[in-house]
Amino acid sequence: MRVLAPALAAITLALAPAFAHAEDEPVAITLTPWNAHDGVERPFRYIVEVAARGAEPVEVVADRRLLRFEVRPQESRRRFTCRHPAAPSRVSESRVRTLRAGDAEGPWREWIDLRMYCTGRALDALAGGGASVEARYGWPRRARTRWVARRPEAPLREWIAHLDPAPFVAPAVPRDGTTTRIGGEDGPSPIDVSLTSTSARTGASLVLRTAIRAREGSERVYTRPDAWSFRVRGPLGDVVCRAAMGGGSPPPDLFRRITTRVAAREALDADYFCPEHTFELAGVYEVVPEVTLPHSGEEWDLGAVTGRFRGPLATMRITRGGRGYVEQIPEEAGDGRE
Q: What's the rounded Cα separation, in Å, for the pair 11 and 73?
């Protein structure tokens, strides 16, 4: 073993990457809150930037789906891993860019929404504030099909498998979980309206799942699919989704009794309610549900709830979309809606 040790050390040095430390790498990566750039609050949204350090050209994989995050809730040993639902298994040559420091094109920059990567408990930890977040851009190990930066003509051992932005602490994001009346009568709402946050591969497969519960005790309601509308905030701007309301007086057996636990539910096809292409792009959509209840059932002495009600925001995550990879350029996105 004493004879082999120097040889093994030499082999280890020969296989070590030429850029062992971040300051020696030909590129630098940063991940910063979008509001740090323009002062506009955009919860969960960050800007990722990869810039060349020197005048020599560097090939970089410009693919935000390669980001992954490890979230550790405040005062907890638990860790949650967040990945993009459409994370590629190998480098796509169409995403390779050549960067040089000082070029007019500048660094590669895109904005991301952490809700595209984190769901469930991980997202709850982020929203609660104080969670420590470690990010990684790239792969655990380098390979000819797995790398994020390299100099042209450089040997494989000098290719960079991953870049690690500085860790950060997630700020708290307030969540409004209340239902409010829209116009008409004042006072608190007697019902709670909700829309379930969900994911779908494309907009064509998206189902909007709504619920109406009594805030206290029990109530009666008459609702049907055309009573619902949805305000969608997405990459193509604001869209209102609604179907034309029918008429007529409903019979008494169609009024439903709801309680704090028993809800009146609907599963609605987003394609039917929304204009074409509303959910065409992959990304996170913020959707606010509204329901109109015009029928009191007074002719049957039912005393059903009436009025217009708006529920809290929910998020719809489209994981692949219908147009493939679309760059999210901060300068072009305006208010950062996804």
A: 41
β-pairing verdict for 191-195 and 168-169: unpaired
Q: Residue 89, SS3?
A: coil
Question: Could you tell me the two tokens for 189?
Answer: 């709402």
pTM: 0.87
Owner of token pair 């459409």 = 86
309, 293 contact by CB (below 8 A): yes
pLDDT digits (tens, 9 = 90+) for 169-190: 999 998 888 999 998 777 899 9
* Cα–Cα distance, 268 to 280 (Å, whole number): 17
Q: Rounded to the nearest 10 degrees, how much is the dihedral formed by the CA atoms of 248, 251, 252, 258? A: -60
Q: Return d(Cα 45, Cα 337) in angstroms, integer.
A: 9
Contact 278, 168 (CB under 8 A): no
Residue 49: how many CB atoms within 10 A of its CB?
17
Token pair in block for residue 131: 């969670």
pLDDT tens, position by position, 259-293: 999 999 999 999 999 999 999 999 999 999 999 99
